[in-house]
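Milestone 3.1: sequence recovery, worked example.
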């Protein structure tokens, strides 16, 4: 009993991600090199990835690739292609399964901290994105490729043998251009084509450079050979233009803005005579997320998932705290940078000038970080700018329709925006759900991770579909007996 009388002080107890954040903040800014053939390259041409919640600081300084460096990356990837393509499938699978374990265990908190600091996500969002989703991408990817490779001819013709159907990687290299908003997509864009034997030149987003660099380190530690995935940060227009001009350019794996994707598609078309083969183009771009609330909807559910009826909706919006994501009491962090801040606040102003009513929010502060308050705009014009165009910020535009106009409102949703990324229908009446689902069949992709129309090619991560885009099948038939005649049997005398 005497031992229990001793005076002692319990050490400070901290959440693990927060501890990782504090350690990272003490060590930043980091220096990020280009990685070519497994070797760090420092061009001396430097750029900074700012911390969006405190733009006086930056999480890293990274070296930008120049023309010579991009050329080395492409040629190095092509040189690594033969061995990587020839590696047995079980070994490639093991590498990505190991990467998934490194992400979910050894590097979990470091990757989460880099996503919180560098990309402004709160701890919950960063956990889902950087740790859970990225490891899921790799693990499910291995499973999907196993299923793909198992798809073989069910039988052979008499006197012949069809060797196993080959699912070859594309001839040339894949260019992966990843976005700032998901660390998981940063890893998956180069990871998916590499999993089926392709070599990749990866150009990460300037605003996600550090977390993506950690992902590349993880892939290297997992066993991805040097040169298979080249890490090439740099100015997007120059790096991408040089890559898609190359004769061996085989595919673009892209997530980013609709404008940029359309431009790249045009640029690729203009280069079509230069290529060895027809490049594959896979992209996820912009979006508008519609939430349609039917009169039969359960209001509380609709409010918590989107927006719904005015009083409850505004009451819930008012609860949302905005601030640095290092404070776990904040739900919404900063937008990614000044261009995004100015774009979002510009849309709010345009909506007001067009007659939209700001029901809540509308304020923004960029004195320290790029913070925009959750904003709800009430519009009486279903074709207003904030209903049609992508804002990519914490802004909801509400349009109130008469219950009897449900069918007309479905037409409005289907035609107002050119995007077709995600959507939700709130109703308890089965017929209303059927009616809306059928009429809005093409208004949202809702594929595991992709969208249609102007939102992309709708074949992104989350299913086996994405892997078909990065393979080229070959069937080999062996004849066991010689052909005696070349003519049709009916023509023989």
């Amino acid at each position: 009993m005497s031992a229990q009388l001793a005076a002692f002080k319990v050490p400070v107890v901290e959440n693990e991600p927060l501890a990782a954040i504090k350690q990272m903040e003490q060590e930043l800014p980091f220096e990020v090199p280009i990685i070519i053939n497994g070797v760090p390259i420092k061009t001396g041409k430097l750029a900074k990835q700012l911390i969006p919640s405190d733009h006086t600081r930056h999480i890293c300084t990274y070296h930008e690739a120049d023309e010579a460096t991009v050329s080395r990356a492409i040629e190095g990837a092509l040189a690594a292609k033969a061995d990587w393509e020839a590696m047995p499938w079980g070994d490639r699978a093991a590498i990505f399964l190991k990467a998934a374990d490194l992400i979910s265990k050894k590097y979990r908190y470091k990757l989460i901290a880099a996503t919180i600091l560098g990309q402004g996500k709160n701890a919950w969002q960063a956990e889902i994105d950087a740790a859970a989703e990225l490891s899921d991408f790799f693990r499910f990817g291995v499973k999907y490729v196993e299923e793909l490779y198992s798809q073989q001819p069910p039988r052979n013709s008499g006197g012949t043998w069809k060797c196993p159907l080959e699912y070859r990687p594309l001839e040339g290299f894949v260019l992966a251009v990843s976005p700032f908003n998901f660390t998981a997509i940063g890893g998956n864009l180069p990871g998916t084509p590499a999993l089926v034997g392709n070599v990749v030149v990866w150009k990460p987003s300037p605003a996600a450079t550090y977390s993506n660099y950690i992902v590349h380190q993880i892939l290297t530690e997992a066993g991805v050979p040097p040169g298979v995935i080249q890490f090439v940060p740099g100015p997007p227009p120059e790096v991408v233009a040089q890559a898609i001009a190359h004769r061996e350019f085989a595919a673009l794996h892209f997530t980013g803005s609709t404008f940029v994707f359309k431009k790249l598609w045009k640029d690729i078309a203009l280069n079509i005579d230069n290529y060895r083969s027809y490049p594959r183009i896979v992209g996820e771009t912009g979006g508008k997320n519609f939430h349609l609330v039917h009169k039969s909807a359960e209001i509380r559910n609709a409010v918590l998932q989107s927006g719904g009826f005015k009083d409850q909706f505004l009451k819930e919006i008012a609860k949302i705290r905005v601030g640095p994501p290092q404070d776990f009491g904040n739900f919404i962090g900063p937008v990614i940078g000044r261009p995004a801040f100015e774009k979002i606040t510009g849309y709010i102003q345009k909506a007001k000038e067009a007659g939209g009513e700001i029901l809540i929010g509308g304020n923004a502060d960029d004195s320290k970080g790029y913070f925009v308050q959750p904003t709800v705009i009430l519009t009486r014009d279903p074709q207003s700018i904030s209903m049609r165009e992508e804002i990519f910020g914490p802004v909801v535009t509400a349009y109130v329709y008469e219950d009897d106009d449900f069918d007309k409102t479905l037409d409005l949703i289907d035609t107002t925006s050119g995007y077709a990324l995600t959507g939700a229908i709130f109703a308890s009446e089965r017929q209303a759900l059927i009616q809306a689902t059928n009429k809005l069949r093409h208004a949202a992709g809702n594929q595991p991770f992709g969208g249609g129309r102007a939102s992309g090619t709708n074949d992104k991560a989350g299913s086996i579909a994405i892997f078909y885009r990065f393979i080229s099948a070959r069937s080999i038939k062996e004849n066991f007996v010689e052909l005696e005649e070349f003519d049709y049997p009916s023509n023989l005398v």
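The chain is about 40% helix and 20% strand. The radius of gyration is 26 Å.
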